[in-house]
Amino acid sequence: VQLVESGGGLVQPGGSLRLSCAASGFRFDDYNFGWFRQAPGKEREGVASITNDEKTSYLDSVKGRFTISSDDAKNMVYLQMNNLEPEDTAVYYCTVSGYWGQGTQVTVSS
Fold it and tell me: Does residue 95 contact residue 108 with C-beta atoms inside 8 Å?
């Protein structure tokens, strides 16, 4: 199993980023996926998840701003993040069935 995140970067408050997670090594459409994040000095927290039948759930603080989606044909999972806030600054991780990617840094700062 391999998960590779990309799309992080530095963005101003109110800006947007789209994170991508490329998955390989397993039957993609059998599994549920999640995005987690970890800010400096804080515990890792779940941000969003999507089931294999595309039911989604979100951390309360990102509802209405973040959208998780998947593309079974491309074995990709995405996290569209809009109206970003400084509190969203963290390393973001893609996860499936106990496997984790290496993470991608998101920094929201003016």
Answer: no
Provide the pLDDT for residue 30: 82
Give per-10-residue mean pLDDT for the chain (110 aa). 96 98 86 94 96 95 97 94 98 94 97
CA distances from 29 to 25, 44, 61, 83, 84 (A): 12, 25, 28, 30, 29
pLDDT of residue 9: 97
